[in-house]
Amino acid sequence: MNVAAAMDLPTLALPRFIEDVRAVAPPPGQALDLEWLPDGRTILLFRALEGGREGDVWVAGPRTHAIFKSKTGFARTVTVRFKPGWSVPLLGVAASELTDRIVPLEDVWGRAGRELCGELLAARSRAEVVDRVARALAPRAGQPFETASGQLARRAVCLLEGGEVRVESVADRLGVTARHLRRAFTENVGIGPKEFARTVRLQRAVRMAATSCDWARIAADAGYYDQAHLIADFRQLVGLTPGAFFKRAGGRMTQPRRICACGCAATTTTTLP
User: Fold this and answer.
1) Are the C-beta atoms of 49 and 77 separated by less than 8 Å?
2) What tens digit of pLDDT does each residue of 150-186 get?
3) Dist. CA 189–CA 42, nearest whole Å
4) Which of 22, 47, 71, 228 is the most buried (most CB within 10 A)?
5) What is the pLDDT of residue 252?
């Protein structure tokens, strides 16, 4: 029996809302490093302490600046990355209320957030983790929540990530004013469309730098005016120059284990953003 056939409807519905799920289990005593660049995403983060009997679940909103942290004492972590535009229906709060914040899920969901933490601690496999997250989201995902502003924001995300660089052009293509688009985008994604476009360029540049050191070419292909524009954006969003960032990252690194929305796992090796 294949994995998809073994999953029920809540799990199979996940690809609509969730971009990916990643798991990390550092060796005992080793620090867990977190490097998170702005990407316009909201994530659900589950952490199990060493021993596996205690843990917590957090919601981290979209970032406007990178964060770098190193923590010890964790046996494993699982990160669920939501697609942009789904914070309101799935979490029950506007994405803008979570921007640059990391809050306990219990503060957002109340008792349901505390219960989910217990269920994830009891999970014995990555597939079980995905299934229990799916069951927690299912009641919310099953509601008629396709708001006009949410649909508009998600369509704008697709255009910006598909290569459109001017917010005014996106607004024109969607038949709304730039002001209306900005309001819908901020509520549903957590940052404005111009700020989101900056994160798109940044992520493109990081991916391209995995296979090239030609920063002038990377800048042009990623959508920057020139190399100086790329460096300025890196400094503002990451706090480092591109060269300093990749030197800190140590070049090519192994990405955390990624779990498909159906629950199967696959290991990928890429340059971390």
Assistant:
1) no
2) 999 999 999 999 988 789 999 999 999 999 999 999 9
3) 8
4) 47
5) 38
CA 234 to mean position of chain CA atoms: 19
Ramachandran category for residue 73: left, alpha or beta (phi over 0 → left; psi -120 to 50 → alpha): left
Structure tokens at 160: 């910006």
**Per-residue pLDDT for 149 more than 80?**
yes
> Rounded to the nearest 10 degrees, how much is the dihedral formed by the CA atoms of 55, 59, 61, 66?
10
Residue 208's H or E segment, with its range, is helix 193-208
Q: What global pTM score does this model have?
A: 0.83
Closest CA to 19 of 206, 185, 260, 201: 260
Tokens 């005016």 identify what position? 225
Alpha-carbon distances of 180 from 168, 184, 230, 242, rounded to whole Å: 11, 6, 28, 34
Residues 39-81 pLDDT 10s: 999 999 998 888 778 899 999 999 999 998 888 888 888 899 9
3-state secondary structure 230-257: HHHHHHHHHCCCHHHHHHHHCCCEECCE
* C-alpha count within 13 angstroms, C-beta hemisphere, residue 162: 8
CB 40 within 8 A of CB 189: yes
- Structural tokens at position 241: 């120059």
Consecutive H or E run containing 78: strand 74-82
Distance (Å) of CA 260 to CA 65, 66, 75, 237, 238: 27, 25, 21, 29, 28
Six-digit token string for 59: 């919601």
Q: How far is residue 80's CA from residue 10's CA, in Å, rounded to a whole number?
A: 15
